[in-house]
Amino acid sequence: MMRQSRQHGEASRVYNEPMSATLRSTPAADGFWMPAEYEPHAGCWMLWPERPDNWREAARPAQQAFAAVAAAIVRFEPVSVGASAAHYETARALLPQQVRVVELSHDDCWMRDVGPTFVVNRRGAVRGVDWRFNAWGGLEGGLYFPWDQDDRVARKVLELEGRDRYRAPLINEGGAVHVDGEGTALVTEECLLSPNRNPKLRRQQVEAYLRSYLGVSTIVWLGRGVCNDETGGHIDNLACFVRPGEVCLTWTDNRRDPQYPISRDALERLASARDAQGRRLRVHKLPQPGPLTLSAREARGIVPREGTKPRIARERLAASYVNFYLANGAVIFPLLDRRKDRAAASRLRRMFPGRHIVGVPAREVLLGGGNIHCITQQVPARGLRRRHSPKGAAGRSAEVSALTDSAGPELSVSF
Ligand code: KQY
Q1: Overall number of domains in the chain
Q2: How many CB atoms lie within 10 A of CB 120?
Q3: Is 110 in the pocket of ligand 1 (CB under 6 A)?
Q4: Is 9 contained in some domain?
Q5: Domain region containing 305
Q6: Using CA positions, which residue lies closest to atom 9 of ligand 1?
Q7: Ligand 1, atom nearest to 175 Cα
Q8: Other Cβ atoms closer than 10 A to 307
């Protein structure tokens, strides 16, 4: 991935340019924007779980689950996993050989939030935004201390990818933003306006940063995130774009469920919103799993530590099927509730008719506070792009595979 010298043609390489320069401008000023997740990927990045104060049984069940997610994604695109020096051997042993494992320090393993948000330009160049990170709220309600290794992950990934970097002045996480790739961002007030992220910034200033660093022109604000979501209301657990003009929203019809007013409010806001292209949004409701709670046995497997948010038995888990990952030609979604997984798969098949629908058992990921979208980060494919592409790009043809319920990291179900 050495840079090509412009003066000396494609064959020669220069060794005196940085692999990843930190740029002083902004993506929007340079003609870059964040593409949608449903656009083509060059690959996917993940991290390896290990903290015993967040993952039960010294993270062993979570490691199996992460390995199954990586195995499901690598069928569709290259996957790289960062693991600490102490856990490199375990990660290498549990992950399929097609997955690249690199030694990478981190505090926890939420690549969506600590990794770079990639941006592209018309000529197909790829760069990355490195947001400031404070473990979802810093010392006032954040989830752990310290978080300095996490805050360095995006920069390291950009060096490994050989991509230039924008260091954004905003405290933000990848899971707090979704985009349609055509000028619209979807966010929540609970998260982006929370006093423990950027207390001095008002809505208009946050919007200005999102415009500059995501290259969007329209921001659709929803209210609160999923009930009891410890990230402070990340959009990626609540709603996402399915394609331009269409949004998937976690849903319950049970008016007594605390999620009901949250989803109802989001639905009303989406119904009255217009995207950057002036379209009204079509909303697909995706019924939530459960409600699910942390069991006493699961809680006992976590080693409490001062400075880390404790996990209490019977607490409600922020479970949502919306927390899926769109790989090239596939939807990798969390299996969370036997009574509802199949219905979720058929809704997803209707939403994404051209993609394989692959379910991966993900309760162990949920126990750590997030899900498949939160532990993954896509790298967009290089290639010429239009600033605003037309609606309805064709996907791959659908395929319904047999159940492949074998043990180990291959464990995933194709619907
Ligand atoms: O929602 C996400 N993008 C991340 C979840 C982080 C949970 C931390 N325990």
Answers
A1: 1
A2: 24
A3: yes
A4: no
A5: 24-383
A6: 369
A7: 3
A8: 12
| Among 411, 415, 328, CA closest to 365 | 411
At 133-159, the pLDDT tens digits run 999 999 999 999 999 999 999 999 999
CATH classification at residue 366: 3.75.10.10
191 in catalytic set: no
CA distance 302 to 398: 41
7 domain residue, yes or no: no
Distance 369 CA to ligand 1 centre (A): 5
For residue 192, give the amino acid letter: L
pTM of full prediction above 0.85: yes
Q: Determine contact, residues 317/290, Cβ cutoff 8 Å.
A: yes
Pocket perturbation via mutation, ligand 1, pick of 136, 188, 377 by most ligand atoms within 8 A of CB: 136
Which mutation among 53, 69, 112, 323 tests ligand 1's pocket best, with the greatest number of atoms within 8 A of CB?
112
Q: What are the tens digits of pLDDT across the range 31-67?
A: 999 999 999 999 999 999 999 999 999 999 999 999 9
Place of tokens 């966010």: 187
